[in-house]
Protein: ATP-binding cassette domain-containing protein
Amino acid sequence: MGDGGAVISARGLVKRFDDFTAVDGIDVEIAAGESFGFLGPNGAGKSSTMRMIGCVSPPSGGDLRIFGLDPVRDGVRIRSRLGVCPQDDSLDHELTAMQNITTYARYFGVSRAHARKRCAELLDWVQLGERARSRVGDLSGGMRRRLAVARSLVNDPDCVLLDEPTTGLDPQARHLLWERLFQLKRRGVTLVLTTHYMDEAEQLCDRIVIMDGGRIVAEGSPHNLIKEHVTRDVVELRYAGTPDDAVLATLPGRVEKLGDRALLYADDGDAALAAAHRAGLELTSVFVRRSTLEDVFLRLTGRTLVD
Structure:
């Protein structure tokens, strides 16, 4: 797809903070109506990229176009068509849920009457209609997160930026938001999100980039990323004692040792498990499962903690 059909197009995009390069020359193209995800460990450059797309942080280099417009020169026009749900919801805790939305609507020139109507629709949409007059400070963390998502839609945006939209939500609230985001996508709204939940990325995203150290290390649909970077099955072997590395090396597929267990990546998990038994490993438990996006993520970015 050429730039003319892209809602967001970046070429060699760079973001520097003094001597630190947070985003190091990435290329991204996001089509209208697409649900697109940025994945990566902390410090990978995801939020810096989202802030540049949201026109609140100017690029340090490269070319960025949103709706075909330059975010440096045309920031106001772009922001009028964007919905933004930041990682920090930045709600006013002294105002009610309704007031948070109607006050935010004024930034987009929405009339008071339309803002009240839109507010009622959005609160019902995230199942907060009965809490419209509750102060935000009295709402649970999950309710506040749903309110932040609702507020981001007050201007009927063409594209919504969601930075870790379901962090802190219980499973019921997460699935509610997933359903609501699917509804937006069916209406043709472009969704761009970051998340640390791999199942969320698999559920919501048509296409994903995985970032590490400010660069893109993989791109594709969740299905294709799994197919390209890991085997069909994973066998989780938990064993007593410490097995001989030479024995593990005889097993089919790739073996990853993790403390008192090992992960065996194989195209046929049952056959790999049978091989583990034949090798004489003293196993305390075994589990054969399909590979997931989390397996891809960990293979490409490693298991080392990043603060």
Notes: The chain has two domains: 33-42+77-226, 231-290.
